[in-house]
Amino acid sequence: MFLEIKDLHVKYGNVEALHGINLHVNEGEIVSVLGANGAGKSTTLMSISGLVKASGGSIVFDGMELSKMPAHKIVAAGVAQVPEGRRVFGTLTVHENLKLGSFTNRDLAHIKQTEEWIYQLFPVLAQRRSQLAGTLSGGEQQMLAIGRALMAKPRILLLDEPSLGLAPILVKAIFKTLQEINQSGLTVVLVEQNARAALRLAHRGYVLEVGRVVLEDSAENLLANPDVQNAYLGGG
Ligand code: ATP
C-alpha cells in the first residue's frame, strides 16, 4: 500500500481531535476526504505532512514511518501539501514562490522543467510569472499554491480545500487540472467541503465525522449513497 494510516490519534492540548483514523491510498489514486467543519479533515492531512504530531497510531508512506519524522524530511520523502487558505508569499513574484517550493530539490534541470510544466498546466501563471503573488486573484493564488507544492517533486499531493471561496468556473478548471496532474502519475488526496465535485474527480472517498471515519467506499458508491446525498450533497 502506498499510504497507510492506522489507528491515528491526534490531540490538541488535552482534547483529542482524531480518535483512531484508518485510511489508505493506493498509488495513482485520487482519494477524497469529506466531512463537516471540525470533522478532522485538516488534522488528518497535517498529520501526514508532519505539521501536527500523532499521539498514537502509524502513518506509513512507501515503507517509511512518517509519524515521527520532521516535516521537512516528509517533504523530501515525496509528500507535499497545499495548505488551506493557499498561503502564498504575497510580496514575492510567481516565479519566486515557485522557486521556494523546490527547496528540497537540488536538480536544477528538473526545477526548470517542472516550472515549465506548471506554466503549461496553468497558463495564466506563465503570463504573470513576474507579478507579485499578492496581486493575483484567489483562483490564481490557488493555482500558484498547487504549483509551489509540485515544485517539491512530490509522489503524493495533499490538498486542503482547494475550492474554498472560488467561483464555480474556477473550481471546475482547477479540478480538471488536478485530474491532469493525477494522470501524469501523481497520487492525490483531496480534502473538500465541495463533496460533489470532489467525488466526481476521485476514485475513492472517506467520510469523517467528529474525528472518526464513518464511511469508506468508491466515489461512485458514495455519490449514490442516500446518507451521503442528504448530509453532503444537498439531498442528491
Ligand atoms: P474545517 O473544514 O473547519 O477545517 P476539518 O474537518 O478540517 O474542519 P479540523 O480543522 O481538522 O477539522 O479540526 C478537528 C477538530 O480539532 C475540531 O474540533 C477543531 O476545533 C480542533 N482543532 C483544530 N485545530 C486546532 C488547534 N490548532 N487547536 C485546538 N483545536 C484544534
Automatic annotation (TrEMBL):
Family indicated by similarity: Belongs to the ABC transporter superfamily.
Domain named ABC transporter: residues: 3-235
Pfam families per record: ABC_tran (PF00005)
Entry-linked PROSITE patterns: ABC_TRANSPORTER_1, ABC_TRANSPORTER_2
Entry keywords, A to Z: Amino-acid transport, ATP-binding, Nucleotide-binding, Transport
InterPro entries: AAA+_ATPase, ABC_branched_ATPase_LivF/BraG, ABC_transporter-like_ATP-bd, ABC_transporter-like_CS, BCAA_Transport_ATP-bd_LivF, P-loop_NTPase
GO MF term (any one): ATP binding
Name of the molecule in the record: ABC transporter ATP-binding protein
Repeat listed as a keyword: no
